[in-house]
What we know:
27 strands; single chain; Jelly Rolls; mainly beta
Amino acid sequence: MPYYIKLGKVPPKRHITYYKDDGTSLYREELFSTKGFSGIYSNKYHIHMPTQVEKIGEFLLDNLDDWPDAPLQYYHFATDEKKTSGDIFSSRNAFLKNDNCVISTANVSEDSDIFFRNSYAHELIFIHRGNGKYLSEYGTLPFEQWDYIVVPKGTTYQMKFDDYSDVKLLIVESSTPFDIPRHFRNEYGQLTEDAPYYERDFKTPQFTDPIDQSGSFELILKVRDRYFKYSLPHHPFDVVGWDGFLYPYTFNLKEYAPKVGKIHLPPPVHLMFTTRDFVVCNFVPRLFDFHPEAIPAPYYHSNVDSDEVLYYVYGDFMSRKGVKEGSITLHPMGIPHGPQPGKTEASIGVKETDEYAIMIDTFQPLKVTKNVKETMVENYSQSWLDE
Ligand SMILES: [Fe+2]
């Protein structure tokens, strides 16, 4: 996040003695940093050494979901057609992936005491349906429907839902951080007046008392497609205080303030997050273009350096027929894409739209998985023929 936070008790300076109440034993300082020691970071103060582990084991998850001979074509698939069950990691169904990005959905159906850490990837968790609390060493983050939770790589967490009967998550993993675009920030990092959101729109962790508990605590580490199980001798949420710029936070899709133009503006105007290898954009309700002869629907376009993924959240999407909540369309690089028959004409003269969708444009081609094969709408590639 682009601003500094301090929660709980921290010593007056970094890297000096910080004694517990007994006056003799030290709290354990952990620097949690990015880009070596050059990027954003936080300092956490633990009751116990964060390095303590009793047992390390690897386990296999049945996630061999490759579809190696998938054709280059347009895809429309309904993620709700393949509902999952399980906890926050075992319920994940990967649909699209490349070396830098994995896009999954998950229907979390059960509470679990395990702790989870994605060791190699940052996570963007979109709460399509569900409410609850995200717990981590940084404190408690309440979340609700349509919140994004931005999780820095290496964060240990749990997610507790109020009700497990209808949870739906869209999870995007990235090998590089989800950044606030540089041009939304001034030279000090503050969000500018013309950014589509403001610091107040971001919710940050609330301080939670440290848990000083001994026992056996299970931590699952995801290391790309491998999973490790660590047994920890103490509760990992034993932080008495922390400060810095690196921590999980939330942002609700409804808070995004879209920009509109006289004639059609391209997708970068809908930008939410950038990573090194892809961008995330928000399509939200907005007024349409106000030139008297404007065509609000997009023109056909060949974006030769991007695969375009759209996840449909709510409403009647202005350029697509047949999509519903939970649908994903993939329009890969190498072939043009654009509105379906009738959608261009139907958009002329329309004043506003009531759609919510999330777009992920990757700069490297995505591989589709068997989950796509099992949930795809047949003949979507031919759906432009009935002009
Ligand atoms: Fe596009």
